[in-house]
């Protein structure tokens, strides 16, 4: 590693995070950007006078040449660079060849969004219909007739963070659109009625092998990335895998090494459309620094240096990234939210060292990690509340508050599903809910009848794991099929509570639940003992959450001290006067 | 944060990691160390000419003064600094007072190990007996008579990484010891026959509040920190908590803010002795960068800047730090192990950018994180194997290989304990073991009889969680008390397998296991169904390990396709000729 020098075109936050990763591996880095205090230059001092950073624009061919002369591998933190200049430096004779990643051809294809769409369409990647348009009313009206309204008008080049996009909702808006997008080459896209935005970071080796990070949900606000949730949750268990497959297939169609950010739209029927691809580390991959075994930045370096790729697996159950976007020319709002973040467990602040704050400028980000989605939202909430631009609706949408304990309503991010075959089982199941309340475990409680709502049973069981549940408690009586049928359609542990009916003393339910065939276990508890089902769920969650082991140990100590209190009372009042309390 | 400037005395690896943390918070840092390319100076470029790094020794009072003039808060990466110089700069009149953390008084106490011991002894902290000695035979012989042999002779000052220690095993060694420790002020310590070394990082606020990181096990080699395992595992469930209490109490006795590393000895009877304390980020806390919610470096900065402390909780189940110590003047050995590390999932490489390699010099470290201790050891093993200094015994000790699948021997780092009341239950329990083999889950299998080995039962159940187990499978027949009694003495989920006896068809066992009282659940599976117990354990572990959810989903698909194969056969051969296979 120590012998190769990496040059980065651009010294903003992506270059800064790349440079920080390079330091860990003793990889020498030279930055090209304007000024001495570009964010990336702050965190990597020049190693020698000959390897000094270059002061100049990443759009200046002369400066690119100057950078190229110092380095062995050239990479970009932004795709809006002069491809001709890249090709020119690649062709300069030198003792050892210059590697450029991503390849100039890839940058050429991607930096023009229309060309990118043509490329993806010709390789069979799923994208929305699109057409070339001229910046005149007739051309756009024709496109609207073919693709329908609303129509997405986009600038082909230099468009990011929503700059260069215009949504034509009605024909009379066309002149306004032309004026807004003036002087830019345009194209039109069929509007995708998406219900969610999804992104996948993919890392591609020099040999063209690809490896993807977990699929994430992205939330944009004013066309700028606002929040990234990892991993993606869905009622559709196949979605995360499908998103990775689409992203990997798309990245395979390009040349050159490094990470690529693939942004996608999810529509109601479950289809995915690629929105756009960035040939570099991406905002939707910042979370990987704290949440994955290897960050996107280190994997970008490994890929372009032809080193083995690192694991892309998540190392925490749940993570969210919140962008810190300038609200005005003052850093005060950013400082205010950072101060809140310092008090949030699991929050890591990344400020980019930008000298000036501007409205809409990316000043930093905060990544929060947590044991569960519910804990994550609890941690995220004060951050969203401290953002001046947050509306109450947004706060409740992305960081919904948990229901008040004992309120009798389900948590929107449950870890445990408590279900029963009939509302008549509620008295038996309530103690399970009370135990989960006591241990602060988010849960949902509802009715799923194996025999009367079989479709609901299938949907519930099949989606349970993908929705983020980690255990299911199912209570049923008589020919009690609910727990076993749920167990046969989920990989999660299912706890069965035999409910005592009017005949056979509950032994019918017990045997129906416990005597499962080989292959599908149900964790059965005592007849009518919903409380123990709740406690078993806590113990199961404790297998992945050490703090719950401690909480359960304290609970066991309380049980012991309760009995010891009764021992004392018995000795004090004598057994003739002792009153047995039944709960 | 942006308004305070932090000065660090020392620009080695600790200063480097502090500086990297400071960048994330836009905290301005000025480094005092010799040369322009000290490791810390490489990762934080001077922010302005007036805030240029200082070129000089951290032992030079003039240079300390020069640094102090530039900063608001002064901190150290090494305690062997000139306390007089610190006190002098603190007394210089200036517009805003200079904060020094740790306080000069703390540095003064700690940098002289004899003074440190006196301090700890007078505050009631557990330390080994010690005596002042003169560097002459008579004085040392007298100490050996009082404290016994072997006797630990230590230099009072400038002693770290084992430099300045001599173990006098026999009286005739005394002249050799005097010669080895020549010209140094000495003291003698009673030898502590430790069975394990333990460390705890503690962060102390300006107001004297303390918060500790998880206790870790440290392994030294040639007196230099070699490995750090987090969290500390033990058969004694109270040990991790006790270690944190000892460390927190000790750090409370000092003044000044920041992190402190507390190194301890564990002896056979479970007692802990403080070995020594470092008033700064410490080698035993490097693992916190990848493994904890807030790293020791960021918490040091937060503490000395009087910001809220970050969470010290682990965010991964298991982590290990391996120091990369120079083996010669060549970096080749270091490069070799780094190349191995790049192929190890969960491994993060930290090279320190030191210009020259030397035997015994700390050149970098590698932190590995994992889902479990067993996975951690599997990941650690190739790293130890690639160290030229590793012996086969060391490799097997710190990264024991798992038993061959199906060999019938227990894994040394089990996640699941499979126990049975009698060896006659083995045929029922074997299928559980086979399932765990199939899913690559490390487990142990043994006999624990509730009625015939009650003490063993208690010891097994009480230590299960602290040893790193996450679930217990217990099989028993007749009056089957084993599962329920284990469940009453551990917070882990316990799976009960009712074993069918010669009478009552196993219903006796089933009811004995499932009908637990409220408060203590046992996850009961079908009579004689050890296989389902294994599968339930896999599902329980999946609650904390998403990859196991996928593996279980694939298993369920296989079950489905097995049956579909039989459907096909039935149609092909007809039911008259169909042969039912019993397994």
From TrEMBL, chains A, B:
InterPro entries: Ade2_fungi/plant, ATP-grasp, ATP-grasp_carboxylate-amine, ATP_grasp_subdomain_1, PreATP-grasp_dom_sf, PurE_ClassI, PurE_dom, PurK. Pathway: Purine metabolism; IMP biosynthesis via de novo pathway; 5-amino-1-(5-phospho-D-ribosyl)imidazole-4-carboxylate from 5-amino-1-(5-phospho-D-ribosyl)imidazole (carboxylase route): step 1/1. It catalyses: 5-amino-1-(5-phospho-D-ribosyl)imidazole-4-carboxylate + H(+) = 5-amino-1-(5-phospho-beta-D-ribosyl)imidazole + CO2. It comes from the Eukaryota. It is an enzyme of class 4 (lyase). Its EC number is 4.1.1.21. Keywords: ATP-binding, Decarboxylase, Lyase, Nucleotide-binding, Purine biosynthesis. Pfam families: AIRC, ATP-grasp, PurK_C, RS_preATP-grasp-like. GO terms for biological process: 'de novo' IMP biosynthetic process. Residues 117-305 form the ATP-grasp domain. Residues 390-412 are annotated as: Disordered. GO terms for molecular function: ATP binding; metal ion binding; phosphoribosylaminoimidazole carboxylase activity. In the C-terminal section; belongs to the AIR carboxylase family. Class I subfamily. This is Phosphoribosylaminoimidazole carboxylase.
